[in-house]
Design brief:
The structure holds two protein chains of two kinds. By secondary structure, chain A is mostly helical. Chain A contains 19 helices and no strands. In chain A, α4 runs antiparallel to α5, α5 packs parallel to α7 and α14 runs antiparallel to α15. The mean pLDDT of chain A is 89. Chain B has 15 helices and twelve strands. The two termini of chain B are 26 Å apart.
């Protein structure tokens, strides 16, 4: 019995020893890397700042220092997040000339998944036409995060012919990674908002359609209000609620009658009707007052809350309705009204 | 005797294999997390119009000392849209008055949301300006009751539960919300790491300098927390078998918590019980359920620095785990509940519930056998060496993981201290904790009362460290 125990002692002791050596080695390496990166970061930040301020008089050169590529990429990412328009385009051009984009394109063909993913993420931050073909090839990468990053990068190229392949990847990935798909749609929405509206109008993945409705609404894309109106007739309650919310965000008064009909439809679930109530308040159409007064008497908490808040946003007429509701025989109506009038 | 020795040996072998696998899974998971472009992902999250708004619920009982600073620090969190819902749980000091005065709140009539049961609300206070803060003043009902009230009053679809004396890092919300962005349908809860704040320089609710504690007792807790979070939790999260999100800092989907019935107010381990119940509730209805541990967002909280307070805490933690097992025993070995039913809960029973008993009895039998000459000195020493080295292996593995990924304690003297206490842990402290855990079992059997943890300074709350089931 002691021999297995002795073997176990030797095994554990060796494992502990190896781990301690590993910790020491990692720390030493991390310290060296940190010192080097701090120095390089300062160097590259100055270079990027000079490039931007001197308007191209001083070209941006590719990092040649050992370990500089990662730091340079990080500095450029930080800068691109703060830039827009011509400045951003200039910096991306400079990256192409410096070979950074070329290096990322080459990395897209790497056998190492994390390298491909990192390269795709980088190209999504500085989308470049040079990378178009490589990105299109990577749309069927085995790694979903790489596929979505490539889709995001392609969406950033603002080319109408790229919308279909991007949306195809989005549709195929929405169940596995809705968050990643949402980022793709947000990127696409900035450059091709009508493409999103068109896709929403077609039948397809319910999850994708819901995301499309949310993106159109949150970004207040007026191009999408037509299709959001159509979608109000859908059987998908979640989709209808998001579309109703989106119409409120867009704020077109012509949508009030449809939202009113939704609010009054007692066959719809309370959360759909609550979304309609909220949107009617945002739009500010006084024709909704009567329906909102009725909704205030509903027993569903959020529907009553939304109705009360919507009335509070409808000016003098809305406040008069709330004053009338103060005399309601239902205690919950009185308490919602009191909360809103306070 | 031989049978018993074989049993203990087999038990430790199984324990070793399971925890070594968890450590490996944790390494893969943390490496995967670190490998993502976390920096740019976070920035995108913080700027995204689709980032879900969050209600931060802060239950407070006699927190007058630090509540204002805590709220100020929370209001400065870096996240696009969030609100703070402070629930004053019938404090006997002037917690509510301090909040009202400091933030110029006025009383507002608010209907009492009917979503979860909680003790009556006395008043609701809102700011005069656009400050995203709400104070709910209610009758005392305990932490779970206060959380139920806060969740009911929350306006947003995600609820962050935090203790009043916990200190969140500024990007904690942004990091913890990522699993909900990745998979908003299946994800019901996520949590970050809780670190021991003893010894840190803290001012106005912010950690200015992270330092290791001076006291030995707090150092042992640092070691335990490193092992628990960087090994067990990360490992279980990798296979969607996580049973607990820390009561000091956790993010939940409000609709799922309300549908499952909220926190139970009649047990002590309400945090672990809620997670297990969420798994059960969702799986019973054929819905996916994902509980995620995010290894990076940090919540700092103060650990007990007296043996008495630590003893009370560990008794309660162990009792909480056992209560959860008793309440959900039908999930054990049930394939409907997948990894949670087939692996996590059996592991909780085998290693957390029975572990202290097996280990302590093993020590006693080994000592008795040596004294009676049944076993020789060599066997006796080897037995204890295995016990010590095995615990050390897990701890040093977790330290290595933490060092390689986040490296919050970069100093060599810090490393030296942590390793020293990792060794010393098995020379008395661990055995003492096991004894206290057995006291928790005894309490459960007797259903006796336990004392409240003492409070001092930057106010400690025993519930703030109620993350501990799973600590070894």
């Amino acid at each position: 019995m002691t021999d297995p125990l002795a073997a176990a002692v030797i095994c554990f002791a060796s494992a502990v020893g190896l781990l301690v050596v590993f910790i020491v080695a990692v720390r030493l390496r991390a310290r060296r890397r940190r010192r080097r990166e701090q120095a390089l970061r300062q160097l590259y930040e100055e270079a990027v700042a000079r490039f931007l301020v001197l308007e191209g008089e001083e070209p941006l050169r590719a990092p040649s220092e050992h370990g500089g590529a990662g730091v340079f990429r990080s500095v450029v990412h930080d800068a691109l997040l703060e830039l827009a328009g011509r400045e951003r385009d200039r910096l991306i051009q400079a990256l192409e000339q410096a070979g950074t984009v070329g290096a990322d394109i080459a990395d897209l063909a790497s056998r190492v998944r994390s390298t491909r993913r990192r390269a795709a993420d980088a190209l999504a931050v500085y989308p470049s036409e040079l990378a178009r073909e490589a990105l299109l090839r990577c749309l069927d990468d085995e790694d979903i995060q790489t596929r979505l990053a490539c889709a995001r990068a392609l969406a950033g190229l603002r080319a109408p012919e790229l919308v279909e392949p991007v949306l195809a990847v989005a549709e195929a990935s929405v169940d596995q990674s809705p968050g990643g798909v949402a980022e793709v749609l947000l990127t696409l929405a900035r450059f091709e908002p009508s493409a999103l509206a068109e896709r929403l109008g077609e039948s397809g993945s319910p999850a994708l359609r819901r995301l499309l409705a949310s993106v159109i609404g949150e970004l207040r894309l007026a191009e999408g209000s037509g299709v959001l109106r159509e979608v109000l007739a859908s059987d998908d309650e979640e989709l209808v609620a998001r579309a109703a919310r989106g119409l409120g965000q867009i704020g077109d008064a012509h949508d009030a009658p449809r939202l009113l009909a939704l609010l009054e439809d007692r066959l719809r679930s309370p959360f759909v009707r609550a979304a309609a109530a909220r949107s009617l308040g945002l739009i500010g159409d006084p024709s909704a007052i009567r329906a909102l007064e009725w909704a205030l008497r509903e027993e569903d908490w959020w529907l009553a809350v939304r109705a009360a808040r919507a009335l509070a946003e409808l000016g003098e007429l809305g406040r008069e309705a709330l004053e009338r509701a103060k005399l309601s025989e239902h205690a919950w109506v009185r308490s919602h009204v009191a909360a809103v009038l306070a | 005797m031989d049978v018993f020795v074989v049993f203990v040996f087999a038990y430790f072998l199984v324990f070793t294999v399971v925890h070594a696998v968890l450590l490996l899974l944790a390494a893969i998971e943390i490496n995967r997390y670190s490998g993502r472009l976390i920096g740019s992902s976070l920035r995108r999250t913080v700027r995204s119009p689709l980032a879900p708004p969050i209600s931060v619920v802060v239950p407070a009982y006699n927190e007058a000392v630090g509540i204002v600073d805590s709220i100020r620090a929370l209001l400065a969190l870096e996240y696009p849209t969030f609100e703070i819902v402070v629930v004053n749980d019938g404090s006997t000091d002037d917690t509510a008055a301090k909040v009202i005065e400091s933030f110029s709140l006025h009383q507002a009539p608010r209907p009492t949301p009917p979503f979860l049961p909680y003790r009556p609300v006395r008043s609701v206070w809102v700011p005069r300006d656009r400050l995203n803060l709400l104070l709910v003043d209610k009758e005392n009902g305990g932490k779970a009751d206060a959380l139920n009230a806060g969740i009911s009053f929350a306006s947003y679809p995600l609820v962050c539960v935090i203790d009043a004396d916990s200190v969140l890092e500024q990007d904690a919300l942004a990091k913890t919300v990522v699993p909900f962005l990745d998979d908003p349908v299946a994800t019901v809860a996520s949590g970050g790491i809780v670190r021991v704040a003893n010894g840190c320089r803290i001012d106005r609710g912010r950690v200015l300098e992270a330092r290791l504690p001076r006291s030995g007792l707090a150092m042992f807790q640092v070691v335990e927390y490193l092992r628990s979070f960087f090994s067990a939790r990360a490992g279980w999260s990798a296979v969607n078998g996580l049973l607990i999100v820390s009561g000091a800092f956790g993010l939940f989907r409000k609709d799922a918590v309300i549908a499952a019935g909220g926190y139970r107010t009649d047990i002590v381990g309400e945090d672990i019980e809620l997670i297990v119940r969420l798994h059960r509730y969702m799986r019973d209805r054929g819905r996916p359920c994902r509980v995620v541990y995010v290894p990076d967002p940090v919540c700092w909280t103060e650990g007990p620095e007296t043996l008495h307070a630590l003893r009370l805490q560990r008794r309660r933690w162990h009792r909480g785990g056992l209560e959860t097992l008793l309440l959900h025993w039908r999930m054990l070995g049930n394939p409907r509940y997948r990894v949670v039913g087939m692996l996590s809960l059996p592991a909780l029973l085998l290693f957390e519930a029975l572990g202290p008993l097996v280990e302590l009895v093993g020590y006693c039998v080994a000592i008795a056998s040596r004294l009676t000459g049944t076993i020789d000195t060599r066997f006796f020493l080897l037995f204890f060496a295995v016990a010590l080295l095995f615990g050390l292996f897990l701890t040093v593995g977790a330290i290595a993981l933490e060092d390689a990924s986040f490296g919050r304690h970069p100093g060599w003297d810090d490393l030296g201290r942590i390793l020293l206490f990792a060794v010393l842990e098995s020379l008395g402290y661990r055995q003492l904790v096991h004894l206290w855990r057995l006291e928790g079992v005894w309490q459960l059997i007797r259903k006796g009362e336990w004392g409240a943890m003492e409070r001092k300074g930057f106010s400690r709350s025993e519930a703030a460290l109620q993350s501990g089931v799973g600590l070894r």
